[in-house]
């Protein structure tokens, strides 16, 4: 019997959706896992394309409604489970900065790192969504230098997003291992929810290989 207010979570281990799994752990939110094996192309099969025509994970269904796009999922879940305190409320001064850094991840960081990973020449400054890579990264590291979290002393859902993303991109050498980034990733990812999510993802990955 599904728990009240349970989230249906479409997920593939060791992908971008691992950040959402970590967030669900941080929130203590009940969820029903719908695992997809990307190595077998299940995210491109008709059954899942009927859920998300983009063929991407993560996707969630909550309270009967589909939510896709990682930043939208993060904003929704952190607001939907307020007891965890991972999102400043609308009336709080930190709400604006919180939204800024969640959206900056998708609007600036992701396009910049994809261009860098693909060794593509960026668009002219007037057309580029992130300006230039160095300015994009310096804007972020200037914020991280003020730490320990993206909002200073307050841990929030944005930290789950950034610590996960920076962990992956520095591991693959797309983003340089600058001291501010390494300190931040180590500090945030030492939280128990990260360990629980990684252990669960490792087990799921092994299960999919064995299937």
Describe this structure in words.
The chain has two domains: 7-85, Glutaredoxin (3-Layer(aba) Sandwich), CATH 3.40.30; 95-192, Glutathione S-transferase Yfyf (Class Pi), Chain A, domain 2 (Up-down Bundle), CATH 1.20.1050.10. Helix content is 50%, strand content 9%. The chain has helices spanning 18-27, 46-49, 70-80, 95-117, 133-145, 157-171, 179-188, 192-210, and strands at 7-11, 31-35, 59-62, 65-68. The protein has a four-stranded mixed β-sheet, with helices on one face. A hairpin with a 2-residue loop joins strand 3 and strand 4. The two termini are 25 Å apart.
Protein topology:
Elements: E1 7-11, H1 18-27, E2 31-35, H2 46-49, E3 59-62, E4 65-68, H3 70-80, H4 95-117, H5 133-145, H6 157-171, H7 179-188, H8 192-210
Parallel strand pairs: 1-2
Antiparallel strand pairs: 1-3, 3-4
Helix and strand element order: EHEHEEHHHHHH
Shape call: globular
Measured by DSSP, the beta-strand proportion falls in 5-15%
Number of domains: 2
Helix count, DSSP H or I runs of 4 or more residues: 8
**Number of E-type strands:** 4
């Amino acid at each position: 019997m599904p728990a009240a207010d349970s989230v249906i979570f479409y997920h593939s281990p060791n992908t971008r959706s691992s950040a959402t799994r970590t967030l669900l752990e941080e929130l203590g939110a009940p969820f029903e896992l719908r695992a997809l094996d990307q190595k077998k192309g299940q995210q491109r099969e008709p059954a899942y394309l009927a859920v998300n025509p983009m063929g991407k994970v993560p996707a969630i269904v909550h309270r009967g409604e589909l939510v896709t796009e990682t930043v939208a999922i993060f904003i929704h879940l952190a607001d939907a489970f307020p007891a965890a305190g991972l999102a400043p409320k609308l009336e709080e001064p930190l709400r604006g900065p919180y939204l800024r850094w969640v959206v900056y991840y998708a609007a600036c960081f992701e396009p910049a790192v994809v261009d860098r990973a693909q060794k593509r020449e960026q668009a002219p400054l007037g057309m580029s969504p992130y300006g230039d890579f160095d300015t994009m990264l310096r804007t972020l590291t200037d914020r991280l230098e003020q730490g320990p979290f993206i909002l200073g002393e307050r841990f929030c859902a944005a930290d789950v997003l950034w610590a996960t993303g920076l962990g992956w991109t520095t591991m693959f050498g797309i983003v340089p291992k600058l001291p501010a980034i390494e300190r931040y990733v180590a500090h945030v990812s030492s939280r128990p929810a990260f360990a629980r999510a990684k252990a669960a993802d490792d087990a799921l990955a092994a299960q999919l290989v064995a299937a």
